[in-house]
Design a protein that fits this description.
The complex is a heterodimer of chains A (about 110) and B (about 120).
Chain A: E1 4-7, E2 10-13, E3 19-25, E4 31-38, E5 42-49, E6 56-57, E7 65-68, E8 74-78, E9 87-94, E10 103-104, E11 108-112
Parallel strand pairs in A: 2-11
Antiparallel strand pairs in A: 1-3, 3-8, 4-5, 4-9, 5-6, 7-8, 9-10, 9-11
Chain B: E1 3-6, E2 10-14, E3 19-21, E4 23-26, E5 31-38, E6 44-50, E7 56-58, E8 64-68, E9 73-78, E10 87-95, E11 104-105, E12 109-114
The chains are: A mainly beta (about 110), B mainly beta (about 120).
Chain lengths: ~110, ~120
């Protein structure tokens, strides 16, 4: 049982390049989330998926797209990376509101030059 | 909408000293409250949470937090800290009820425990 996994762990992009961050969970959780963490800003929600087949915008969705590929996987895509998207990205998952505990992946550290 | 204010961005303390990390929230509806901890170069882990019942909640490693509805606070305390408690601590809230579940995080408090 690996929990929440994220790939890659590190990535360096040039401005304008695109990439997809992958997230998978093996806990049969219904909801999945993408956050970005910046110094002094805490975690800010980018997008979330309350259940398979649904996605919704969070606090800072501009410049990102997501795909809930199936119940296990939730990917985050940067179509045209910008230096402002340099950040650490965390994926999280949640079983149901009964537990109310989000489980986080180890993060992806992205640098956009 | 909910918001969370962590009043201290950094808290340095000496080993075995007591510590309090402060958290205040704002919400027009009832909320659940959480403290998450992030050790260096890791993801976040749940430390403790308040959903209902007793307003004093405890973690397995000696931290406790008390929900104070009148003061809209959820401060985190530990009577005696260890070097291994050095980490960043995040307070978070979610609204009670509703069809989707989202956490709103504070900006974090970096706890540094010195020998």
């Amino acid at each position: 049982n690996a929990g929440v996994t994220q790939t890659p762990k590190f990535q360096v992009l040039k401005t304008g390049q695109s990439m997809t961050l992958q997230c998978a969970q093996d806990m049969n959780h219904n909801s999945m989330y993408w956050y970005r963490q910046d110094p002094g800003m805490g975690l800010r929600l980018i997008y979330y998926s309350a259940s398979e087949g649904t996605t919704d915008k969070g606090e800072v969705p501009n410049g990102y797209n997501v795909s809930r590929l199936n119940k296990r996987e939730f990917s985050l895509r940067l179509e045209s990376a910008a230096p402002s998207q340099t950040s650490v990205y965390f994926c999280a998952s949640l079983l149901t509101r009964v537990t109310d505990t989000q489980y986080f992946g180890p993060g992806t550290r992205l640098t956009v030059l | 909408a909910q918001s969370v204010t962590q009043l201290d961005s950094q808290v340095p303390v000496f080993e075995e000293a007591p510590v309090e990390l402060r958290c205040n929230y704002s919400s027009s509806v009832s909320v659940y409250l959480f403290w998450y901890v992030q050790y260096p170069n890791q993801g976040l882990q749940l430390l403790l949470k308040y959903l209902s019942g007793s307003t004093l909640v405890e973690s397995i490693n000696g931290f406790e937090a008390e929900f104070n509805k009148s003061q809209t606070s959820f401060h985190l305390r530990k009577p005696s800290v260890h070097i291994s408690d050095t980490a960043e601590y995040f307070c978070a809230v979610s609204r009670v009820g509703g069809s989707n579940y989202k956490l709103t995080f504070g900006k974090g408090t970096l706890l540094t425990v010195n020998p």
